[in-house]
Amino acid sequence: MQLNFSAGAFNLFLCMLWKCWNARNAAVFRNQDSNPMRIEQEAHDYLDFYQAAQDKRMTQPQSTTDLNNLAWKPPPVGTLKLNVDVAVSSHQNKTGGGVIVRDHTGKVIAATAFSRVGQMQPKAAEGWVLWEGLKWSRDNGLNIDHIEVDCKNLLTDLQSTDDNLSSYGTIINAIRRMLSSLPTVTLHHTRRQGNTAAHNLAQMSTGERRGPCSSGPENRSICFKRENQDI
């Protein structure tokens, strides 16, 4: 018998097999029952996360010039730049966000990391982290001039005039309202290599990476840094 799968269907098939194996192990070793509908949804979610991660990847550059072009770029003198990113941990069953604010010298003015239980859909997670980052900046009196994210789809959706009635659309509309009150703020896309600090913070918040932040209430961790160093 010969089965003909499209590339997308075959990838989903592999994810289904893996999730079924995980469910089998949970039943045998932890006496946990799994709902077939949940297994299917988890397979779809995992494939979405994988594809979103692949969209962010790029070939490792060979020259020093290319590396410099991909690195984080400081904002103009006298301004602040906000970088945000998301990380999802299937092992910890968490979605985490990292937010970092730096000035034109590259000095870290403030940074925060936070997480929530569950694995959010990729675009919704990116939107959630940006929304939380904007609120956090406002609440801490940080006058942001530039914002960078490494998810092109999020920027496209924010610039679109289409109505979206999903939960993701609710996040997009909330971000739009926040940005409308900040008319001088500019929103940009950056490569993953230019967003490393925010991503590392996001990984710390899920427990996938250790760092200088200490856990706080409501599963949030916050750190403020006053010197320019890698996070």
UniProtKB/TrEMBL annotation:
<dbReference type="GO" id="GO:0003676">
    <property type="term" value="F:nucleic acid binding"/>
</dbReference>
<dbReference type="GO" id="GO:0004523">
    <property type="term" value="F:RNA-DNA hybrid ribonuclease activity"/>
</dbReference>
<dbReference type="InterPro" id="IPR012337">
    <property type="entry name" value="RNaseH-like_sf"/>
</dbReference>
<dbReference type="Pfam" id="PF13456">
    <property type="entry name" value="RVT_3"/>
</dbReference>
<protein>
    <recommendedName>
        <fullName>RNase H type-1 domain-containing protein</fullName>
    </recommendedName>
</protein>
<dbReference type="InterPro" id="IPR044730">
    <property type="entry name" value="RNase_H-like_dom_plant"/>
</dbReference>
<dbReference type="InterPro" id="IPR002156">
    <property type="entry name" value="RNaseH_domain"/>
</dbReference>
<dbReference type="InterPro" id="IPR052929">
    <property type="entry name" value="RNase_H-like_EbsB-rel"/>
</dbReference>
<dbReference type="InterPro" id="IPR036397">
    <property type="entry name" value="RNaseH_sf"/>
</dbReference>
<feature type="signal peptide">
    <location>
        <begin position="1"/>
        <end position="23"/>
    </location>
</feature>
<feature type="domain" description="RNase H type-1">
    <location>
        <begin position="83"/>
        <end position="204"/>
    </location>
</feature>
<keyword id="KW-0732">Signal</keyword>
